[in-house]
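Quick illustration for those who missed Monday's session on complexes.
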Amino acid sequence: MKIAPSILTADFLKLEEEIKSIEQESDYLHLDVMDGHFVPNISFGSHVLSGLKRITNVPLDTHLMISNPIDYIKDFAGINSSFITIHVEANKVKETLDLIHSYGIKRGLSLKPKTSIEELKPYLSELELVLVMSVEPGFGGQSFMVDQLDKVRELVRLRDEHHYNYVIEIDGGINFNTAKLAKEAGVDIAVAGSYVFNAKDRNEAIRGIK
Ligand code: DX5
Ligand code: ZN
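Prediction with D-xylitol-5-phosphate bound:
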């Protein structure tokens, strides 16, 4: 299982140093973009992220928790992210996924804990990533919702049955114990924010959950 530390819990006054402190063991850098409308919190936008590629070789994994992602795909395409993930609860899902694809960026689709997997089904054949939220999106440091692993198991089953190509990512409440459950359920990439950034030795924490 790959690990994508979320920089949401990093100290933004020294972001470069913070990224250097985790890049040795990180498979991706997970970037949580929040608009204060889709979720009750505001984080950062493409301007803040635009220089990341100059300071790190770790591939970027952008998670847009915003209501109208279509208006911002051009800006986020400019940061050179490997994946851009939008939410199925957002506006203009199909058009936005097509736009992401037109930039040669891998398409991700996420769902909130209360959203049924049925909502994803029309899009699964065109996705490179499905992101299962294991907390209510908006804040780091919440507890893992173990019932969301049923969605992971169902996504594994659907991928086998229909030969889909997506990887399965999980986001929220990942630590040493919950990462093990996620891996057993079939998760390919686990996002970990507070567990990594609050650890004394961050690379050791990532190695531990791997
Ligand atoms: C929540 C974000 C997560 C969050 C994870 O809305 O999407 O990526 O930062 O943080 P932890 O690992 O602390 O739950
Ligand atoms: Zn996220």
